[in-house]
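User: For my dataset I need records formatted as: sequence, then structure tokens, nothing else. Please produce one.
Assistant:
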Amino acid sequence: MDSSIIDRVSSERLRHDLFFFSRDPFSFRTVMYTAPWHEKNSLDETDDAIEAEMKKFADSVTRFPNKVQAFRCNPSKPLHHWYDGPHDDDPWYDANNIEVVFKGTDKADEIIQLVSHKDSMSWINSPGAQDNATGLVANLELARVVSALPRRRTIRFLFCNEEHTPWHSRTYAKAARERGDNIIAVLNQDSLCGKSDEDMAAGVCTHAAVHSTPEGLELAEFIRDVALKCKLDLRVSVADKGIVNDDDGSFIKEGYCRTVMNIGSSPYADSQYHLRGDIPERVSIRNLTLSTQLILATVCELDRR
């Protein structure tokens, strides 16, 4: 791989997008919040912004409409897990998956699938900067860069919702299986820079490639090797989830087992996880840039091989 390719990742664009989607104008990305004098809720407006940006770079940008409910807040539960399932009579809201496709050439039938959830917590008003504006903006930046690269395989992005219910990554993965999509790898970007307060204070840049299957372990070790090959100043670890869950789990449950979650730490150590203090000022832009470069290099290596 041409090492200069990862230099196309822009820390300035990542910073701009991070604050755009988790500070101003998007304090929240949820069906439960509508800004004063706005007609659409903030998740609908997020979808509009993602779609408009991706249409600058991709010919194939598709919305898949779904229905979601908000989680209820239960502060009697442990601190980071205040969410409860909705009641039967709670309202349903329109929501969307957004798919962005960059077709390949001689191996276009083989798909490298990138995933990130774009919503913030529906049970509290949290900016959701680490979780998961970081994954959202990383995938936006990856799509921009990928659009200008030669590709043998098809590279496909899914922007979905995970902080509302039900999760429509499962709907998307099920449809892919029913079509017979040949997905050769799934990379889920979720809370990319979330780490302990100690690592934050020390300026340590961390990245965990987390797996739930033997095939996922192989891919996670591949990611770690790519980081070494690119000489990224990033402390990369490989970890076993011990459970099949999250948006990567949606694909595993449909038989796409070469799947990992890219996350900031494992076990997840962000003290503001699922809290109101998950603000963009706490995100290390350097860590976000390095992690995005690592995922780009991984995609390029997967495509090259």
